[in-house]
Write a structure and sequence with these properties.
This protein has about 250 residues and is an all-beta fold. The protein contains 1 helix and 15 strands. The strands form 4 sheets. Strands 2, 4, 7, 8 and 11 form a 5-stranded antiparallel sheet that branches. Strands 3, 5, 6, 9 and 10 form a 5-stranded antiparallel sheet that branches. Strands 12-15-14 form a 3-stranded antiparallel sheet. β14 and β15 form a beta hairpin. The protein is flat, with a radius of gyration of 21 Å. The two termini are about 15 Å apart.
Length: about 250
């Protein structure tokens, strides 16, 4: 994550947790109070972050084998309770991975998605509901658009999702000056199971916003293709999954 430490900036966040078909009603976050800020509100960023965790059971006949599984999709729907709010698009999640299942055995594991997020940037007259000394409120629905039966390969192994849960967070960021901007980074073709890039590589095309400096905070623990990521000594280190070849993010 890259952030700009602009002086004229504030944020508010709340967490929520949901099971399939459940709704979190009236999750409140603070408004931007113009009486305690030095400048007018110019832009609002609303971001939803979530992970999906499920308890999965596998059983089947035949030899011990490595099973590829997928369960999806879970959809988080966001609705504004306060009139006039702009909300992010639905956030969609899938549980997938590989698991060794022993011959004739029944196995239970806990599987968790890597973090996903959906965001929207709001400016102009649409920022009006976010100004004041109170709160704005959102509802969150866990729309379970899936059957409990896992998609597995080979199909001779049966997989079942016993229970699952979404853990999420809404973050509302307020800017009363030019906001920091983190741009995507294209890192080109790399070779080798472990690759490292300088943190400055990721900051080079970003801007800090009003009166601020850029700061690199952290990276996701895993990439979209399952590679492990970590920050070591001023570098971002990428550990690819064995045998992987192709695009990643």
């Amino acid at each position: 994550m890259v952030t700009g430490s602009a002086a004229r900036y504030s944020s508010s966040s709340r967490t929520f947790t949901l099971g399939p078909g459940e709704t979190a009603f009236g999750i409140e976050v603070s408004q931007f109070d113009p009486t305690i800020h030095s400048g007018p509100l110019t832009q609002v960023h609303v971001r939803i972050e979530a992970t999906w965790e499920g308890r999965l059971e596998f059983s089947g006949e035949g030899p011990t084998r490595m099973v590829t599984y997928e369960l999806g999709e879970a959809v988080i729907l966001v609705q504004g309770v306060t009139a006039g709010l702009v909300v992010p698009a639905p956030l969609k999640l899938k549980l997938n991975g590989t698991q060794e299942v022993a011959a004739g055995a029944t196995l239970t594991i806990v599987s968790q998605t890597s973090g996903a997020q959906q965001a929207v940037v709001i400016d102009g007259p649409m920022i009006a509901p976010y100004q004041g000394s109170g709160t704005v409120a959102y509802d969150f629905d866990f729309s379970a658009l899936y059957l409990p039966l896992l998609s597995t390969s080979p199909i001779s192994v049966v997989g079942l999702a016993c229970d699952s849960r979404i853990t999420g967070r809404i973050i509302v960021e307020y800017f009363d000056g030019a906001p920091p901007l983190a741009r995507d980074d294209a890192l080109g073709i790399v070779v080798g199971p472990t690759v490292a890039w300088s943190i400055q590589t990721f900051l080079a095309n970003d801007t800090s916003g009003s009166e601020g400096e850029l700061e690199f905070l952290d990276v996701s623990t895993h990439s979209a293709q399952g590679a492990a990521l970590e920050v070591v000594g001023g570098q971002v280190v990428y550990h690819a999954v064995a045998g992987f070849s192709g695009p990643d993010s």
